[in-house]
Amino acid sequence: MAARAGVGRGTASRVVNATGNVSQKSRRAVLRAVAELGYVPNPAARALVRRRTDTLAFVVAVSQERVFWEEPYFSAIVRGVHTGISGTGLQLLLAIAHSPQEHAQLTSYLTARHVDGALLSSLRGDDPMPRHLHEAGLPTVMVGAPTGFQPEYGVDLDNHQGARLAVHHLTSRGRRRIATITGPLDTRAGTDRLEGWRTALTDTGLRTDLTAHGDFTAASGAHAMRELLTRAPELDAVFTASDSMAVGALRVLKESGRRIPHDVAVVGFDDSPLATDTDPPLTSIHQPLENMGHHMAHLMIAQLRQEPITQPHITLQPHLVTRHST
Predict the structure, then answer these.
(1) Rounded Cα–Cα distance for residues 285 and 192 (Å)
(2) Counting Cβ atoms within 10 Å, is residue 315 exposed (0-12), middle (13-18) or buried (19+)?
(3) What is the percent of the chain with per-residue pLDDT over 70, rounded to a whole number?
(4) What is the pLDDT of residue 67?
(5) Mean of the per-residue pLDDT values for the chain?
(6) Poorest-confidence range of 45-49, 109-113, 144-148?
(7) How far is the first Cα of the chain from the last one, in angstroms, to the nearest whole number?
(8) What are the φ and ψ backbone dihedral angles of 267, each rounded to 5 degrees?
(9) Looking at the chain, which terminus has fewer C-beta neighbours within 10 angstroms, N or C?
(10) Ramachandran angles phi, psi of 212, nearest 5°
(11) What is the pLDDT of residue 178?
(12) How would you classify the pairing of strands 319-321 and 283-286?
């Protein structure tokens, strides 16, 4: 291309990469040669030279079914991340790792620096991925966190306060036998929502033993609701730690002949699109998922640009959206 344009290779490189000063005459000659030769830059070669891929991985450690069909949670956060990186030249790669084999393969892929950074979600327990990525020097940002883990950079919701809002709403409606269906307790969201429920009930002198455990899926919500009705058929309200679990709980309550909200009031968590599709529409705790994704993107961009980060941990506030299930 440089030969066709009659310029040096360095001049051609500066024109193609839009770096340095080049005379207008040389620039026109190079651009003419680009058009004549049909030149297209090789992104792999550029990545080797620049040590950048201009790609971020959004990591989801759950099954494909939950990502694409069951959980609006993930798509909302991805939309926020996409908005946050718009105009930066960065591309977003969705990486799903559910099985141990997929998890190991993805960890190897990320630590080999095939991406510039990783945005982590839905990690549980003592997942080793964050440690491996840190050791590899890969910039990361986490939404939520496993129980007992503090990410270097992260975005989360005040889940404890969200659960308290749900219980206070139910008690204000006269409910006194309030059960909960928890999320997985090896996640901070699961434990914090349980503790918020327990704290709010303790503050009002109500019993705190009506618990059953789920994993944020509708199937687990249905199973937990059957368990609760067997143990405490007199319950008059249930707080579920996700809207998906509320969908399962509502189905079981209807099958058992309970009227909603007359016999049993239900509050979910997420305020996802599911909440407006249930019958009756679901009262839910709203978490600003797109905004959370937007904050994740900004924390990642600041790391890549080596900009000072004054707030590495961002906690957003929830609010209650009241519908006809309460």
Answers:
(1) 14
(2) middle
(3) 93
(4) 61
(5) 91
(6) 45-49
(7) 70
(8) -125, 130
(9) N
(10) -145, 150
(11) 98
(12) antiparallel
